[in-house]
Amino acid sequence: MHSETRRPTTRPPPELQCQVWLDFDGTVTREDVLDQLILRYSVDESWRDVERRWQNGEIGSRQCLADQFDLLRVTPEQVEALLDGMTFDPGVGSLIGLLESRRVPVTVLSDSVDFFIRRILDRLGLGHVPIRSNTAVFRSGGLQLLCPHENPRCSFGAAHCKCRSMEALGRSGRRSIYVGDGRSDLCAARKADFVFAKQTLADCLSRESLPYIRYSSLHDVAQFLADAWQSSPAWVEPRRLEASPVIRRAESA
C-alpha cells in the first residue's frame, strides 16, 4: 500500500489483485448507528452545534464524537436494543458472498464502535468479517469513546484514520477498492484505486473531479464487480430482499 493520494481509476482491479474496504454506518447499515444513538440518548441538543462544527470542517471526527459521547446517558441494555433495531442494506450478504467466493479480502473500516458493529454483523451471520474501528466503555451512566486507531498527524483529525488502517492491513500486491457514503470516507477514498460511493462521499468526489461508481445498494456493488470480473453470479444470496437499482456513473468518471 502507498500512503500518497492517488487518482482512482474507472475500472476495478482484477479479483486476484484487489482487496475491499467497506464502511459501516450508512453503508452496511441503512441508518447511521452513531447518529441514532446520539439523537435518542443525548442529555440535550448541544450535540447539534458540535455536529455543525464538524460538518463545516472546524473540528475533526475525533473531537466531534468525543464531545457528543460525553453527552450520552445510556445503559448497555438500551444500546443493545438500539442496535437490534437497526436495518441493513439487503445487498451486504451478496457482496460478502461474492468476495469470499472469489477469495478477495474484505475488511470493515469504521468510525463507529467495535462492539456495535460486531453485534449487527453477528445478527446477519457475518460475524467472521474482520473489522477495524473505534471502541468505547460504559462509565458513569454513559459511554466513553476510545480511539486506538487515531493518527496525530491526520489532517482530518479523524477518530479512526482509515488511511493508516489501509496501510497497516493492506496486503502486498493487492490494490484497494473502497465502498462508502460519508465525509469520514473521503480521505481513504482519495487513496483507493477504485471507489464505489453514494450520498455525501459521492458529492465530495464529484466536486474534486475524482472518478467513482455511484451505487444505491450493495447489490449494485456486487453485480458490478461480478460483471467486471466476467463472472456469473454463482454465490448464494441469502438476504436479497429487493431488486437493486441501476448503477449510475458519476458525471466526472
**Looking at this structure, what is the CATH superfamily?**
HAD superfamily/HAD-like
Q: Helix/strand/pairing class, anyone?
A: alpha/beta
The ordered H/E elements are EHHHHHEHEEHEHEHEHE
Q: What is the number of helical segments per DSSP (H or I, 4+ residues)?
A: 10
Largest sheet: spatial strand order:
4-3-2-1-5-6-7-8
- Overall outline: globular
Explain the overall architecture.
This protein is of the alpha/beta class. It has one domain (about 15-250): Rossmann fold (3-Layer(aba) Sandwich). The protein has helices at about 35-40, 45-55, 60-70, 75-85, 90-100, 115-125, 160-170, 185-190, 200-205, 220-230, and strands spanning about 20, 105-115, 130-140, 140-145, 175-180, 195, 215, 250. The protein has an eight-stranded mixed β-sheet, sandwiched between helices. Helix 2 runs antiparallel to helix 3 and helix 4 (about 75-85) packs across helix 6. The two termini are about 25 Å apart. The model is unreliable at about 230-253 (pLDDT under 50).
